[in-house]
Design the sequence.
């Protein structure tokens, strides 16, 4: 276990693990947590939802190896989690883990969540305009989510760059803020700066090998029963109109169950969608970012990570003396 002397004195340490979907963040985080007295906070927006296990590659309770996990299975698929809720709940979890003299490890592929936490974003608060929201949702149905995203880009290109065009809910949210306040959404995202001592681990892998692993994982999802999982969710009334059910895998299987596409086409679309998602993830955390400690997953990097953490802690203690 890493001792307290290996941690910075002034700000409490939080370890962040970033990297593309399928690179192995989950398994590495569990291994690392078991060796440094850590607990894990999920920063994956898909892990929030109960009953969405196979299609999100959510770690089972057995796979978690007794390591406490936060922000997994905390919402029904019909619930909407905003970025501000995520930040509030994550900061609460970090404080609790620190109070227990353990190390928080925040893990996830939702780049906006991680970046907002690192930079101390403060999300603008205002009374929602339900009528305006309905108008914007109706507009998106009329012209399509992609065209609505293009409208956002015309008004606020910086906001459009960080919002996934497939995420209609966030596009609508940004437009709602713009039309309500008369200001660009991107200019209202205030930053308080880091609240903790963040040590960021970036995981990399040869792109072709990563795509192969993703393809294999998609096949495994169907073997494990992804179609039945989606059937159960639809039986409970969770349909494609929900933001949660628009996640890769769920939207394709819903189309298959509706008879719009066959199973093989659903798999092809999942593979294409995942590749696009991986490329978008790379925009949040670039290899040139010197604030990230990058490790290749070609070999298990856990021991190297622990060594680097110890050296960094020793250096910061020496600087304080």
Sequence:
């Amino acid at each position: 276990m890493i001792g307290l002397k290996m941690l910075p004195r002034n700000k409490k340490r939080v370890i962040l693990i970033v990297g593309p979907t399928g690179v192995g963040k989950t398994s590495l985080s569990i291994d690392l947590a078991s060796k440094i007295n850590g607990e894990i906070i999920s920063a994956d927006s898909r892990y929030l939802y109960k009953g969405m296990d196979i299609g999100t590659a959510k770690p089972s309770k057995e796979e978690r190896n007794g390591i406490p996990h936060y922000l997994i299975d905390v919402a029904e698929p019909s619930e909407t989690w905003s970025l501000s809720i995520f930040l509030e709940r994550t900061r609460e979890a970090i404080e609790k883990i620190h109070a227990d003299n353990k190390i928080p490890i925040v893990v996830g592929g939702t780049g906006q969540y991680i970046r907002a936490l690192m930079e101390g974003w403060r999300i603008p608060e205002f009374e929602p305009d339900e009528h305006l929201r309905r108008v914007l949702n109706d507009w998106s149905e009329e012209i399509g989510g992609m065209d609505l995203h293009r409208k956002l880009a015309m008004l606020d290109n910086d906001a459009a760059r960080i919002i996934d065009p497939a995420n209609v809910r966030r596009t609508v949210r940004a437009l709602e803020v713009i039309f309500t306040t008369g200001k660009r959404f991107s200019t209202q995202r205030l930053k308080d700066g880091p609240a903790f001592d963040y040590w960021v681990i970036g995981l990399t892998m040869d792109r072709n090998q990563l795509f192969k692993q993703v393809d294999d994982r998609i096949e495994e999802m169907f073997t494990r029963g992804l179609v039945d999982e989606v059937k159960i969710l639809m039986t409970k009334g969770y349909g494609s109109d929900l933001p949660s059910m628009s996640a890769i895998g769920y939207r394709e299987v819903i189309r298959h169950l509706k008879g719009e596409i066959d199973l093989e086409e659903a798999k092809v679309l999942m593979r294409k969608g995942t590749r696009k998602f991986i490329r978008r993830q790379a925009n949040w955390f670039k290899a040139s970012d010197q604030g990230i400690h990058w490790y290749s997953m070609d070999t298990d990097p856990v021991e190297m990570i622990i060594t680097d953490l110890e050296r960094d802690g020793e250096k910061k203690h020496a600087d304080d003396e």
Summary: The mean pLDDT is 89. The CA atoms of residues 25 and 273 lie 20 Å apart. The chain is about 50% helix and 10% strand.
